[in-house]
Amino acid sequence: MTGGAETPTARMRKAWHRARTSVRKAGVDYFRGDGSDWIALAALLLTVPALALTTIALPAWCVPTALVLPIVAGGLLLRPASLLALYAASAVALIAEAGVLNTEASGDGVRVTPGTILVVAAVGFLGLLIAQFRSRVGVPWRRGGTMLFDLRERIRVQSKLPKLPRGWHREMALRPAGGQSFSGDFVVAARTNGGRTLEVVLTDVSGKGMDAASRALLLSGAFGGLLGSLPPHAFLPAANGYLLRQDWDEGFATSVHLVLDLDSGDYEMFSAGHLPGLQLCAGTGRWEEKAAEGPLLGVYDGAQFDPIKGTLRPGDVLMLFTDGLVETAERDLTEGMDRLTGEADRYVSAGFQGAAWHLIEAVAKDVNDDRALLLICRH
C-alpha cells in the first residue's frame, strides 16, 4: 500500500533535519551579519550563571570580576537591546555572589566589594558604547574585518594592470603610509581601441592612508568606469567634474593619464597637477622629464588639460609616480627625482622586472606618506 501515513521514525527524522537546517541557517546568517543575535545572547546568558556558580563554589579560582568576560563579548556581538538583557542577568548574578560571599565565612577572603561593582559597571558602560556605535554604523563587529578585507581587495583588483603584448613589460608597486593596508594613491588601467592602446591613470588623492582610502576607493571605481568610455582628451575633464560634484572638504587630487599605442610606442600624457614622468632614452642613456600642463582635479570647473607627446622606443623606460616617493620635508623634489633615477640606473643592464617595489624600498622606505610607482618598459 502506497501513500500511507508516515512512521514515527520518519517524522522524527524530518523534524530533526528541519531543526538542524534552521540552526545552521541561523548560524550562517548571524556570522554574515544578516540574522538575529539570539544565538550569541543565549550562549552568553548561559555563561553568566555558570560563572556565578563557579565563583561561589571556587572563589579562589573564579573571582567576581570574571563577569566582565561575557559583558565584553556582548559588547562586541550583541545589539544594544539584547545587551541590556545580558546586563540584567549579570547584575542578578553579581547580587547573588555578594549575598553568598559577603555573608559566609570564606577562608579565601573573596568578597564582592564596591570596587568590584565599579569595575563590572565600567566595562558594561564601555560595552554599551561599542554596541551603540556598531548599531549606528550598521556594520556588525563580526563582519567589520571582512568588509575591510573586501575593500582592500577591491582596490587591489582595480589597480591591477592588464597584460601587454610581447615586447612590453609593466609593473606597479604601491606602499601606503605607516604600513597600513589602504592608500590614497591608486591606479586604474585598461586596454582600449581593440587592445592596441594601453590607458593608465595614476591618481594621488589628498590626504594619506586611511584618511584618503575611502575617497580613493570611490574615485577608483568612478575613474575605472570613465576610462575607455570617453576619448582620451575628455577623461580628465570628466574626472574633474566628478570631483567637483562630490563637494568634499578636502576634495582635490592629482592625476596623470597615459595613453600608449602598443604598436608604435607613441604616447600622449595628460596631467592634472601631477608630478612629471621620467623617461629613460636607451639611445642616450639619460632620463628626461615628461611634464604635461593641467590644474589639480576638483579645484575649478572648465579646466583644460594639454597633453605632452612622446615615443617609447626599444630599450626605453617610462616611470610614473606620486609625490610621496620623491618629496619629503627633508628632501626637495629635484633631489628626490635624482635619487630615484640614480637607483633606477642599476636596473638598466639587468632589466626592470621586479624593480618597482625595490625602488620604493631604496628611495622612500621609511617615508610617512603613500608611495606609488608605475614602470612601463619596451624591450
UniProtKB/TrEMBL annotation:
Name of a matching Pfam family: SpoIIE
UniProt-recorded Gene Ontology molecular function terms: protein serine/threonine phosphatase activity
Classification via Gene3D superfamilies: PPM-type phosphatase domain (3.60.40.10)
EC numbers for this chain: 3.1.3.16
Domain of life: Bacteria
Keyword Transmembrane helix on entry: yes
Keyword set, alphabetical order: Hydrolase, Membrane, Transmembrane, Transmembrane helix
InterPro entries: Bact_Sigma-Reg (IPR052016), PPM-type-like_dom_sf (IPR036457), PPM-type_phosphatase-like_dom (IPR001932)
The PPM-type phosphatase domain, residue ranges: 169-378
Transmembrane segments: 38-69, 112-133
PANTHER family in the cross-refs: STAGE II SPORULATION PROTEIN E, STAGE II SPORULATION PROTEIN E-RELATED
Name of the protein in question: PP2C family protein-serine/threonine phosphatase
Lineage start: Bacteria, Bacillati, Actinomycetota, Actinomycetes, Kitasatosporales
